[in-house]
Amino acid sequence: QVQLVESGGGLVQAGGSLNVSCAASGRTFSGSATGWFRQAPGKEREFVAVIWGGPRTYYSGSVKGRFTISRDLAKNTVFLQMNSLKPEDTAVYYCAARWGGLPTTPAMTLMTNSRNYDDWGQGTQVVVSS
Fold it and tell me: d(Cα 1, Cα 85) in Å, to the nearest integer?
């Protein structure tokens, strides 16, 4: 049984940093694409970042330059380092796995559409106070 478990969320002041993690059990992240999404109250779930392949990474415009996605395949864990946090980053952060991976140059919609991911974690809350 595949399980993704996020951790590391919490409360931080604007301008601060958090590092959230996603650990997988039952299947290896090797060969997969692993994404982070977030959902703020009253809003739709939105794409944040994805890592796959060599690795390659892709970020949403709202977090590019502030967030960094990385992975440790030996620990079967994906990380999202979030710096220069803003109140608008407040959301539940979810990791998601697309076990078949992504092509070298995937279409943006393939990376960012939540329907293209197979398994999801339960989410971790991030609150950024102003």
Answer: 34
